[in-house]
Amino acid sequence: MAMSVHCDIVSAEGEIFSGLVELLVAPAAQGEIGILPNHAPLLTTIDAGPIKIVRQGGTEEVMYVSGGFLEVQPDTITVLADTITRGEELDEAAIEKAREQAKKALLEGSPDDTDYEMAAARLAEAMAQLRVLSQIRKYKK
Amino acid sequence: MAAGKEIRSKIGSIKNTQKITSAMEMVAASKTRKAQDRMKATKPYAERMRTVIGHVANADTDYNYTHPYLEQREVQRVGYIVVSTDRGLCGGLNVNMFKAALKSVLEWKGQNVEIEVCAIGKKGVGFFRKSGIPVVGATSGLGDRPEVKDIIGTAQIMLDKYAAGEIDRIYLVGNEFVNTMVQVPRVEQLLPLVPGDDSTKRSNVWDYIYEPDARELLDKMFDRYIEALVYQAVVENLACEQSARMMAMKNATDNAGNLMEELELVYNKARQAAITQELGEIVSGAAAV
Predict the structure, then answer these.
(1) Most CB atoms within 10 A, among A11, A140, B9, B118?
(2) Could you tell me the CA-to-CA distances from A109 to A101, A102, B81, B173, B289 in Å, in that order?
(3) Quick check: is B118 catalytic?
(4) What is the mean pLDDT of residues B245-262?
């Protein structure tokens, strides 16, 4: 059996996952990182994007995280996220719509507007969510 | 029968009060559940955050830089962030908590330390204004669904003072929710950070790999930590408030019931005495004729 390590994933809204994992992949500040058991202690921020975990036994799960922190200790991995959505709960049509709207706002607005920044943030979020969806689809095939 | 009438109206007024208290009890009961759910939802995040920060405080940062939040300074001024309720009628909840806060304040005052308070919640603002302790920040009227951004402004005042060296220690005071019946006041040191009990105590010196650099990361992390803790305290206090109010109103309703029973007895006695007297008068009147 593959080695595993305890992992807690919590967001400000509640505990999302707590259990043993064989692998965790997260969008860290300096690029995507994979954490395996016996990783060195690490503390990093995470960006918006997909978090993938491989549970003990090999089931994979992907969720969307909007940002937060990741801590690795010899015996635990802790993900402190701002918000988390489970991959299956993402609504592709709604995200696509949000992306279109944000794109439109970006094209029409001027870069000095506060709206412009908001739209840019929304666009980045929608793109990250779409990445999560495409990952999920990849695994299902 | 003047006495009888007086008692009647007294019973009437108690009955009205009882109606109000029992209605408030039911309102508080329904709010309790929601407040508890909200508290439970935020708890894991705050707890994990505490653990992680505890680890960070234990790590040997090899940079020539100690974060101000980790630095133990000589204590000359102490700040308190006190989380209280906006509304009263919740039993001894606020009073007990103020007592705990004052006890800690007096201890520091004994060592000639100056005190400043940031109050969240109307009751705390009022109490500390009256007690003569300088209130440097105040927020009230948070409602049943407080948001992080409503609270963080007040906490930020304290943090800025801490960063500027005007305050050397910050405490967070609030109520801890044990269960619906029991709420305990809690005075907790917020800054400088208290190293957590490292269950995985390692003998060798260790440090994290930081991504991006330590300074930037820790700044962000500590801000989020304080935010999470203060927010958690507010949400927990809300759950305490509703439970305490429910219990206080339940007691008030029961007491009103007892009082009414007693008055009812007095009233009936007075009524019977009056009838007996009247009968006696009639009988003796008839005998005289």
Answers:
(1) B118
(2) 12, 10, 42, 46, 109
(3) no
(4) 95
